[in-house]
Write a structure and sequence with these properties.
The structure is a single chain. α2 packs parallel to α3 and α3 crosses α5. α6 links the parallel β7 and β8. By secondary structure, the protein is α/β, with parallel strands linked by helices. The radius of gyration is 20 Å and the shape is globular. The strands form two sheets. The protein has an eight-stranded parallel beta barrel with strand order 1-2-3-4-7-8-9-11, surrounded by nine helices. Strands 5-6 form a two-stranded antiparallel ribbon.
Length: 349
């Protein structure tokens, strides 16, 4: 299996929880924001040194937990400090962007990174659609048409026009050309039957975030069935799963770290929310991580995902301060990642 580290660009200071949207910019100390960006680059570099196969970025708006409203900008910075690992855009939100502009930006990034880009184009959540007042009823169609348009941008060698339902362009001629031919590895959402079918029909991978394993099995089976009807066979590398991680030397230590972190966060968020919003505080929404435990427990979690057909795991390590995140990352890299990679080599031998 391949393992990806999610470079979250999380704000490393006190702020209301993930359930508060939009988050007031008054909570952002510019110096902490700057330092948080630098910490993200340093942790990504450390993850590559430990042997992670990919470094990923995501897109979110008006929030402290992922400060990357333009993930391509963050990915471009990562491409200059991470020299071996794939740079995974997981993923740009198509309805919030001009798809031709996205095609140009990703092509530029693919050249900057010497062809290391992997990309997952997403629809986004209702909160994200509210960012620019995008009509929610149009977002699915905009996403699917936008992906088809981006693919044509990368594959067409001559200028062309596009007259679709959601997008109309009289002239499209993307420079530079995408470095990987015919295009970088692409994924689609695996979070609904329609999106699974769409990805399989276009020979894209599928990606899940925080889904229960029973749901993953169901959608992976559907994905393989539809791919067979479309005349191709996906490999494990085309099924991706994202989960939260907190790894320690033992299950008890990991549980203690998580419990302590949640207690500190609850106190900070209750204080901030009572000062700025009034009324009772909102209960934090961070769920118990799937990858919570000592090395053997984490290895078993990976094996369960492998049995579901997952071949790439994208992990974020949001528990604790930067030092705790680095420690958790290091334990995973030293005691779990070599086993994951060894099992992969044995399986392919």
């Amino acid at each position: 299996m391949k393992v990806s580290y999610l470079a979250m660009t999380a704000y490393q200071g006190p702020a209301p929880g993930i359930e508060v949207w939009p988050m007031s910019p008054s909570h952002c100390d510019p110096e902490i924001g700057r330092r948080s960006m630098q910490d993200t680059l340093a942790l990504a570099r450390h993850a590559e040194d430990l042997g992670f196969d990919w470094i990923s970025v995501a897109e979110h708006h008006y929030a402290a937990y992922i400060m990357s409203p333009n993930p391509v900008v963050m990915a471009a910075a990562l491409s200059q400090v991470v020299k071996r690992a794939k740079i995974a855009l997981l993923g740009p939100l198509v309805p919030l962007s001009n798809p031709v502009r996205l095609a140009e930006e990703v092509a530029m990034l693919d050249n900057l990174s010497d062809g290391r880009v992997v990309v997952l184009f997403l629809r986004g959540t209702p909160h994200e659609h509210n960012t620019y007042d995008t009509p929610k009823e149009d977002t699915r169609g905009m996403t699917q048409e936008g992906i088809d348009l981006i693919l044509k941008c990368w594959q067409e060698k001559d200028p062309f026009s596009w007259q679709g339902v959601h997008y109309q362009f009289s002239t499209v001629a993307v420079w530079p050309r995408i470095y990987q031919q015919p295009h970088p590895p692409m994924f689609g959402s695996g979070n609904s039957e329609e999106s699974v079918l769409f990805a399989a029909q276009r020979r894209m991978g599928i990606a899940f975030s925080f889904a229960p394993l029973e749901q993953v099995r169901k959608w992976v089976d559907l994905y393989h069935e539809e791919a067979a009807r479309a005349g191709w066979t996906p490999g494990p590398d085309q099924v991706l799963y994202r989960g939260l991680a907190c790894v320690a030397d033992s299950d008890q230590q990991a549980d203690d770290i998580f419990t302590s972190h949640m207690g500190v966060q609850s106190e900070q968020q209750a204080l901030l929310q009572s000062k700025t919003m009034g009324g009772p505080p909102v209960v934090p929404l961070i769920s118990r991580p799937y990858f919570l435990g000592g090395p053997q427990t984490i290895i078993e979690r990976f094996e369960a995902l492998r049995e579901c057909g997952v071949g790439v795991v994208d992990m974020n390590f949001p528990i604790g301060d930067v030092n705790q995140q680095k420690k958790s990352l290091s334990i995973f890299g030293d005691k779990v990642l070599p086993v994951i990679h060894r099992d992969l080599r044995l399986a392919s031998a």
